[in-house]
Design a protein that fits this description.
single chain, twelve-stranded mixed β-sheet, about 15% helix, alpha+beta
Length: about 250
């Protein structure tokens, strides 16, 4: 599973030390709340901080911030800025109208002279631009995640879900053949904790994951996602055609 090393949380031993989250402790139905946002195709502001360590050494660190629009089967549009250690710079990611657009960072070096945006078709595999697994913007994946809840205190949920279960539930993961976990990987678990607001909507998702037998050495990762301003208004301006390049 290619992105499992750069898509989920930290070593299991650290799970007893969950970070402090929002103080909300409500009993609203989180799945119904998310489905309502999906049906209405609402925007929400998101930030994601992600770290991966290989043999305890920092391998990747990323920071993604911006806004996304929900829809079926997953995200239908987004406006994001991403900074990563591996990219060595900052990139802007846009999606809407059946296309994705990328600018900056290493992508800039691959563009022809006079072009500032790389355009591609917006396929099912592109509907999760974040490193976090699970992609909880998908209602089916969110449902599968909540089904593994082992503890709940008001509006705070926590549990663990296998990579195999996530792959079966997630449309965007199944759309990428190299994301299918092998037999060993399918049994590995993502440990998660979710804070919801008064309406039952996600306020924060913290995930941790470890693979002691990862091919390049013991791997651990963690992802901290924050959600705010559900239903916010976003004016998304796509690049002009003369500034974009789309490979044939």
């Amino acid at each position: 599973m290619r992105r499992s090393a750069i898509s989920v949380g930290l070593v299991t031993a650290l799970l007893v030390c969950w970070p402090a989250g929002p103080a909300e402790a409500r009993a609203a139905d989180p799945l119904a709340a998310l489905k309502a946002q999906v049906a209405a195709k609402r925007w929400v502001k998101v930030s994601e901080v992600h770290q991966v360590r290989i043999r305890k050494e920092l391998f990747e660190k990323s920071d993604i911030r911006g806004a996304v629009r929900l829809g079926r089967p997953g995200l239908t549009a987004y406006d994001l800025t991403i900074k990563t250690k591996q990219l060595g710079g900052q990139m802007r990611l846009l999606a809407a109208g059946g296309y994705t657009y990328e600018s900056g960072g290493p992508r800039q070096q691959a563009l022809p002279d006079g072009k500032t945006w790389w355009r591609a078709r917006f396929t099912a595999s592109d509907r999760n631009p974040f490193y976090s697994v699970p992609p909880i913007f998908e209602a089916a994946t969110y449902k599968a995640l909540l089904a593994t809840t082992t503890r709940r205190t008001g509006g705070v949920y926590q549990g663990a879900i296998t990579l195999g279960t996530l792959y079966k539930a997630s449309p965007s993961l199944r759309a990428q053949p190299d994301m299918k976990p092998g037999q060993r990987e399918a049994e590995l678990k993502v440990h998660w904790r979710l804070w919801t607001d008064r309406k039952g909507l996600p306020a924060r998702l913290y995930t941790t994951f470890a693979d002691p037998d990862y091919p390049t050495g013991a791997m651990s990762s963690r992802t901290d996602m924050r959600f705010s301003s559900w239903g916010t208004k976003v004016q998304l301006t796509l690049p002009r055609k003369e500034n974009t390049y789309q490979p044939s």
